[in-house]
Amino acid sequence: MNEDIKEPVLEEETPAPAPETPPAEGPAPGPSAPPEPPAEAPAPDKEPAPKPKKEFLKGKAREAEGLRAKLEAAEKKAADIRDQLLRTAAEYENFRKRSAREADRKFNDGVSFAVNQILPILDTLEMAAGAACADENYKKGVVMTLDKAAQALQKLNITEIEALGKPFDPNLMNAVQQVPAAEGQESGTVVTVYQKGYRIGDQIIRHASVVVAE
């Protein structure tokens, strides 16, 4: 059987339409709008929030305590410095007085030594002045010499120890003899001075040699 075999006719494939892109969201195209200004940051608080009253008082108390401690330390330091200055002044005053005493003692020692060498000469002049002498001019010269010697001793602060008629004082006198007390005369009274005594200040140069009533 001869039947015409019909070839199938291939239909051309129609391309599928491309999917539509949805329009972008936003304002419709038009003239460009000006940019919006940036948002302003919130302004900070001009003044900090006040502290609670209790905390404020505690802070002031601590500050006052610190100032009080500093003041006490400064007062203690000032008192210590004052005490040190007073001690230094007292030590200097003691040193000055001690130095003055030592200088006076050394001076007196030197004067005492020199006067002790001259006193025997004065003793001889005293005997010559008290002895009988026919030459009045000679005796007058001896007396004048003794007067000048007395003036020189006075300038050196040397004084004669008063003994005649005074109670015997062993610190100032040497008793070389005792005699019966005369009528109305107290025992222990100096009745005669054999040799004059001298001193410079409180320092004895020579004790007075005396006779004492019993």
Which features does this protein show?
46% helix; single chain; 3-stranded antiparallel sheet; disordered N terminus; 6 strands; alpha+beta; 214 residues; Nucleotide Exchange Factor Grpe, Chain A, domain 2; 3-stranded mixed sheet; 14% strand
Question: Please, could you describe this protein's structure?
Answer:
By secondary structure, the protein is an alpha+beta fold. Among the domains are: 51-126; 158-214, Nucleotide Exchange Factor Grpe, Chain A, domain 2. Helix content is 46%, strand content 14%. The protein is built from two helices and six strands. The chain has helices at 53-130, 136-155; strands at residues 158-160, 173-179, 190-195, 198-200, 203-206, 208-213. It has a three-stranded antiparallel β-sheet. Strands 2-6-3 form a three-stranded mixed β-sheet, with no helix packed on it.
Short description:
By secondary structure, this protein is an alpha+beta fold.
Calculate the mean pLDDT score and round it. 80
How far is the N terminus from the C terminus?
213 Å
Main β-sheet: number of strands, strand sense, barrel status?
3 strands, antiparallel
- Uncertain runs: 1-13, 26-30
Number of helices: 2
Global morphology: elongated
Secondary-structure map:
Blueprint: H1 53-130, H2 136-155, E1 158-160, E2 173-179, E3 190-195, E4 198-200, E5 203-206, E6 208-213
Parallel strand pairs: 2-6
Antiparallel strand pairs: 1-4, 3-6, 4-5
